Amino acid sequence: MKIATYNVNGINGRLLVLLRWLAEAMPDIVCLQELKAPDERFPQAEIEAAGYQALWHGQKSWNGVAILSRVGMPVETRRGLPGDPDPGQSRYLEAAVSGLLIGALYVPNGNPRPGPKYDYKLAWLAAFQAHAADLLRSGLPVVLAGDYNIIPTDSDVYKPERWREDALFAPEVRAAFAAIMQQGWTDALRTLHPEATIYTFWDYFRNAYARNAGLRIDHLLLSPAIAGRLASATVDHHVRGWEKSSDHAPAWIGLSG
Predict the structure, then answer these.
(1) pTM value?
(2) Of 21, 28, 59, 232, most Cβ neighbours within 10 A?
């Protein structure tokens, strides 16, 4: 079972890139972020022609998340994060797929810091932490995959000293991520590659991708009920180099059994 997360940075503007990657990588389940499209503009026909059934939670011009599956129709269990301080933003979608519970999320960026956007990020993370704890108590096999907009540690960013004041790397944000992990979740990529340089995002500016000046902000967290099945985890780094690509690359895990 191959499960991926990919911030597409505009699903309609980058649809050809997404379809090319789906055909190449053939993931079983995909969580998408930053659709930047209202529900009626989700490219359902093209996604289905590629072999995937989909659920989506869109929003005009901003945000938006989706779950794609080629192993059975995702059965929606939740639309929106419980306790979201701004439920008008489309940032969370949850579904049962092939015996798993999949949570697709897009955490607020939070910049500029300080300010109301940063306050919203902290409030959203507090609500997410509470929901993640509820999911763990359920005992279900859960994957929480998406763009967390969090750089967990210094090893997850090129030149960390340049990011100290950014909302992606702020002490409160890193502490929130650590608190979620301490509940008992497994960070799939870092668990299998504890010392590796792994990035999932490269800015469009300053030739960042060519210099590999990136960040690891896209994460797949596994509940204890499924963590033992983790067999592989990687980033399709090369996709970031395609023409008209997103500034993120897809990250994915392989589960045994």
Answers:
(1) 0.98
(2) 21
